[in-house]
Amino acid sequence: MQTHYFYSATLGFLAGILLPFLNIPSTPVAGLALLLAFTSLLLLWLQEDTSKGIIVLVILLLAVATGSLRAGADIGGADEMVFDSLIEESVVARGVVTDMPEESSSGQNITVTLTEVSNLSTNTTITGESRAVAYVGMFPEIQYGDALRLEGELRKPTVFETDNGRLFDYPQYLAKEDVYYELSQPEVGIMDSGAANPVLVWMAVLRQDLLMAIDRHIPDPHAALTGGVLLGAADTLGDSVEESFRDTGIVHVVVLSGYHVTVVAVAIGAILSFLGLSLLSSTVLSGIGVIFFALLVGFTSTVVRASIMAVIALVARIFSRQYAATRGLMIAVVGMVVVNPYILLYDPSFQLSVIATAGLVAFGDVVYGWLSAIPHQFGIREMATATITAQIAVSPLLIYYTGTLSLVSLFANLLILPVIPVLMSAGAATSLIGMFFQNLALPFAGVAYAVAEYIFSIVNWLTSLPFSTASIGNTSLLIVFLTYIILVGGFIALQNRSETVSDENDLKTSKI
Fold first, then answer.
1. pTM of this prediction?
2. Angle at the Cα of 142 (from 141 to 144), degrees rounded to 5?
């Protein structure tokens, strides 16, 4: 497929996904798009010469219709309303924990797939299936796959105002995880364990065992940081530490980003190459390793996006094809949005991950050229390029969501990102060896502790600076869009200028 056909299909599909969320009915939009597409096809058939412009238009319209119908099918489903008659009633609910629980300063946040809800006052019972988030105390300690009995008040999530004055659409944010109800501080009883998908239950147990091995060998908060960087278990860091990481712009280090998947893929490839495996064997095993890591840490949007792109790159390697990162990114985005249309508008992590990757793919070469003074040995210039490009790309959207601008974010990332692979490697060795041989894990634990201490010292130093963050306040989406237009236009102008200078130098060289 030619490039313009591919991108027209991609952009049309994503545009179609957006329309139903803007309260534009999906069926009329799809019908109009299909009518226009067939009209365009008729015009194309009547012409003697094939017009690529009309073909692009037809593909665009068909993609808009497909996207609109896909998003419309996800809005207003039965699982959104199955227990609505029991809202704000005291209920007894039964269900299974189907996401990894998260710890907070006030307790545990768990996602439960409800199958039965009973009204305590009328003894009426409704059976069905929907998901709810429950905010419970620290005890009993709940695990993935536990079958629970919860007694409390059933509610619908509501929109609330954030610290920067922006309204946060919490219902839609939860809807991206198919969560439509909530219970606050219910009484909890564990009825059974291991009631969910057996593979994911085994993964959750393995993850917990690895984290416990880290906790046995490394003291907190260094253990929490190691577990967060390695397995995404950042919920035990504490609110003040997490706030410091946000202020310095490195919170992505402990919530698992595409960078972590890249580190895992590179590490597996290096180990397999060292063992002397063939190209095919090492590539297949690398892909299996990436998928295993995604299963282990949980299918967060950033991990899924990076894993899809990594697998596509590995498949291209098997068939000796050149990997086009832009197409890989688009395939990952479309694939994820097909599965879950809500993430396009209501998942900040997905949006930031995609924008950071797109910025690096589109303008990484320009930034790399700016950094000619930085040595390329040991990948230093590549690391600086990725860090600077990603930070520039995500800054407008981060300001929109947080209302603050970290003035030390770029510096913090340049100082901390290079040691993350070391912390991940030391943490992995500590957890794997520590599960069986505690004393042998101590040297690796010492390395992990030292790296974690270095990260904490950098964060504490930067947050102590009086100019570390600037409060921007509520920013409109229009300003964000205009900022991105200016950024993209500026990068394109600089890229064209760089190419012009390069051509002029080549011309001068050829005349000498």
1. 0.89
2. 145
